[in-house]
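Technical annex, item 7. During the second reporting period the consortium partners agreed on a shared format for inverse folding records so that results from different sites could be compared directly. Each record opens with the tokenized structure and is followed by the designed sequence. A conforming record, contributed by the partner at site C, is shown below for reference.
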């Protein structure tokens, strides 16, 4: 049967497509950094990001969460490299953006100094529910299309 893919092949393809290898995926990661991670770091205050990027926070905290939600939705909509998957990323992105910001803020609230590599802890914790939802939705769509 020409064109038939086994379940294992589809799962392997989805896994490969979720690794950042395209220019669009790298741009999506940059959008996420500038709309979620860096603003969360600047809210912390002593991160050094304020002087590095010149961010000045003059709006309520709720605005930061809205920006994070929009940034997460844009990021996830851009992320999957195959056409037809943009809308699929919006819901997980709306979840990932604010959760990551909340986790980063919570993690940094107990810290006086932090290494940039330490930010991976709250990033992974905050993004896990949205990434699992995204992977589930993409895999389900791929399996139904086969």
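Designed sequence (site C submission):
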């Amino acid at each position: 049967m020409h064109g038939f893919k086994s379940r294992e092949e589809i799962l392997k393809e989805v896994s490969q497509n979720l690794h950042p290898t395209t220019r669009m995926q790298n741009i999506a990661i940059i959008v996420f950094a500038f709309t979620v991670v860096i603003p969360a770091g600047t809210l912390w205050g002593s991160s050094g990001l304020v002087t590095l990027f010149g961010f000045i926070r003059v709006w309520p905290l709720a605005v930061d969460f809205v920006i994070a939600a929009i940034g997460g939705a844009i990021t996830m909509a851009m992320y999957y490299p195959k056409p037809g998957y943009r809308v699929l990323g919006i819901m997980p992105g709306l979840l990932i953006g604010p959760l990551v910001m909340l986790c980063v803020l919570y993690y940094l609230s107990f810290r006086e100094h932090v290494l940039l590599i330490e930010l991976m802890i709250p990033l992974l914790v905050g993004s896990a529910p949205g990434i699992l939802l995204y992977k589930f939705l993409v895999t389900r769509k791929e399996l139904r299309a086969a």
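The chain has one domain: 19-145. The chain has a mean pLDDT of 83. All partners now use this format for quarterly exchanges.
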